[in-house]
UniProtKB/TrEMBL annotation:
One of its GO terms (cellular component) is cytosol. PANTHER family: N-ACETYLMANNOSAMINE-6-PHOSPHATE 2-EPIMERASE-RELATED. Keywords: Carbohydrate metabolism, Isomerase. The gene is nanE. This is Putative N-acetylmannosamine-6-phosphate 2-epimerase. It comes from Kribbella kalugense.
Length: 222
């Protein structure tokens, strides 16, 4: 079984329908490019993308399935969504473990226990706060990630949440994964110094629209 090693840079290869790169073949190419650059694992969304990525790499895949309302719990909200991505080739399941109500009313500890029992893969809890991270570990999560920090209370900061990584790493007895708005080598280093076990980077590597817009924004007007 493929596992997430300590000190890994994970590249999140995701594109929504608004992105010209939307689709499994583009995401498989992204994953191959990430691997060629030294990525140690891939994070990917949905069974189609995951199956296409699985076909071209042996790297561990952290799978998720975004379903439902993005304003609520939508990262792998149900057991069925977890089962679908594992069948497609995911080695770990990432799921929303914020303290928000789940769409099916399911308790997260029962969901995690069922994934362990029936799918036999580790669960990475995507959280937004220290409280949610501690609760996720108590609920059985194998790893805790800061993925949802800044996305659940209406205001998204521009930078990554180094402080949350530091707090989680100080309190938890499991790997803490840094994720969200990490853009530069300095950000990556700050996360490692704060105690991150692994670092996930998405937009800054796999979203050329974002990269282009940032540089276009640097051109003086007039
Ligand atoms: C909040 C949410 O839905 N995050 C998603 C989780 O899978 C992805 O859209 C992010 O790209 C991923 O977390 C990596 O983060 P960033 O792209 O900022 O490096």
């Amino acid at each position: 079984m493929r596992t997430l090693a300590s000190g890994t840079l994970v590249v999140s290869c995701q594109a929504g329908p608004e992105n010209p790169l939307y689709g499994p073949s583009s995401m498989a190419l992204m994953a191959q490019a990430a691997e060629a650059g030294g990525a140690g694992a891939i994070r990917a969304n949905g069974p189609e993308d995951i199956a296409a990525i699985r076909a071209v790499t042996d790297l561990p895949i952290i799978g998720l399935h975004k379903l439902g309302d993005p304003a609520g719990v939508f990262i792998t909200p149900t057991y069925e969504s977890a089962a679908g991505i594992v069948a497609a080739g995911a080695d770990l399941v990432a799921l929303d473990a914020t303290l928000r109500p789940r769409p099916d009313g399911q308790r997260v500890d029962r969901l995690i226990a069922r994934i362990h029992r029936e799918l036999g893969v580790p669960v990475m809890a995507d959280v937004d706060s220290l409280e949610a991270g501690l609760a996720a570990r108590d609920a059985g999560a194998d790893l805790v990630a800061t993925t949802l920090s800044g996305y659940t209370n209406g205001r998204t900061p521009t930078g990554p949440d180094v402080e949350l990584v530091r707090q989680l790493a100080a309190k938890l007895d499991c790997p803490v994964v840094a994720e969200g708005r990490i853009r530069t080598p300095e950000d990556v280093r700050a996360m490692c110094d704060a105690g991150a076990y692994a670092v996930v980077v998405g937009h800054a590597i796999t979203n050329p629209m974002d990269l282009t817009a940032r540089l276009v924004g640097a051109i003086p007007v007039g």
